[in-house]
Amino acid sequence: MRTALVTGTGLIGTSLALALASRGVRVHLADRDPGAVRTAAALGAGTEEPPEGPVDLAVVAVPPAHLAAAVAALQRRGAARGYIDVGSVKGGPRRELAALGGALASYLGTHPMSGRERSGPLAATGDLFDGRPWVLTPTPETDTEVLNQALELVALCRAVPVLMDADAHDRAVALVSHTPQLLSSLLAARLRTADEAAVRLSGQGIRDMTRIAGSAPQMWLDILSANPGPVADVLAEIAGDLDEAVRSLRAMESADEHKRAAGAAGVEDVLRRGNAGRERVPGKHGSAPAAYETVAVLITDRPGELARIFADAGSAGINVEDVRIEHATGREAGLVQLMVEPSSAPRLTAALRERGWSIRP
Fold first, then answer.
1. Fold for domain 293-360?
2. How far apart are CA 173 and CA 180, in angstroms?
3. DSSP class of residue 11?
4. Per-residue pLDDT tens for 36-62?
5. Domain boundary assignment for the chain
6. What is the dihedral of CA 351, 353, 357, 361, to 10 degrees?
7. DSSP conformation letters of 232-286
């Protein structure tokens, strides 16, 4: 791949363009917002100049509702040898493109499973897709050349290709991406009118659960509008579980011992099913999640503290598998939770204590 046209210079489009440009591809940028194009170009994502002729690959990175029309318009212009989109919904846009008379053979729907809470070109980074799954949805009509172009694109972005049926993809992302966004927003909405005293008690749990609630509403409205049915199906199943959980919790308030026991059993069932589901989420390097030991270290909010603690762990020969930071409300301090192999935890604890760190249980 020597030339590419990226239409849509938001987070995904600009990140993709940055990755391609850094690997020697001449990238032409287009967007209905000239300011976004100028920003992306200034970041080194490509050139504002239109291509002189057809490029090798046109990448459409616009909201799902506009994907099909954008691809069809590019195809009518003969803008490229192949066309892909990077939208988060796949089945609907393909059917819409067919209805518009688009050439399905030269088109392939794709979806990089990566993003951030922030949007726009200034949030972009060339390593956004490193090691992340990138779904490709070819059909028997898809030209082999276009599939190969898409695979080359994924490789240049250092992502991991995953082949799926388009509608199966939409059901999958409804479960693992779109519904979590709504649930995070629903939970965060409870904080809007909560007592200030309650909000000040917020710990890492509520921060983890509401992190993605900070995403741009309009962006998510565009995504959810393109995949409402599968998301509603998942939410309906969760609503049934919530109803059962509410009944179980109410039963635990009963004066009747048998009702309390039945309620506790219902809540325990939810928690255990949650354990079983969580165990299926891929862990490091895509493997089954490992059972790590946590070493909690008190850390002050001073420049270089995180670097120092990681350097001390490295000097002790310990590989930190994962890390979380729990901030202390109202204090310039927090707990750094270092996740390591269970056999390494005692050595890490001893080494950090020797270097003056305060280890917390």
1. Alpha-Beta Plaits (3.30.70)
2. 10
3. H
4. 999 999 999 999 999 999 999 999 999
5. 3-164, 170-278, 293-360
6. 110
7. HHHHHHHHHHHHHHHHHHHHTT-S-HHHHHHHHHHHHHHHHHHHHHHTTS--GGG
**What secondary structure does DSSP assign to 102-118, as a single string?**
--GGGEEEEEE----SS
pLDDT in tens, 130-153: 999 999 999 999 999 999 999 999
- Cβ count within 10 A of residue 300: 11
SS3 101: coil
CA dist list (Å): 183 to 64, 189, 235, 238: 21, 10, 9, 10
Provide the CATH topology of domain 3-164.
Rossmann fold (3.40.50)
Parallel/antiparallel/unpaired status of strands 55-60 and 80-85:
parallel
Between 140-149, 206-215, 246-255, the lowest mean confidence (pLDDT) is in: 206-215
Record the pTM.
0.77
Backbone angles phi, psi at 154, to 5 degrees: -60, -40
CATH class name, domain 170-278:
mainly alpha
- Of 171, 68, 153, 57, nearest to 112 by C-alpha is 153
DSSP-derived 3-state class of residue 39 = helix
* Distance separating alpha carbons of residues 106 and 84, to the nearest angstrom: 8
Task: Please give the structure tokens belonging to residue 97.
Answer: 């493109």
CA separation (Å) from 89 to 123, 248, 290? 22, 37, 31
Q: In what order do the strands lie in the sheet with 3-7?
A: 26-30, 3-7, 55-60, 80-85, 107-112, 133-136, 160-163
In whole angstroms, what is the distance from residue 48 CA to residue 121 CA? Answer: 14
Residue 198 corresponds to which tokens in the numbers above? Answer: 């309650």
Point out which residues pair with 82 in neighbouring strands.
Answer: 57
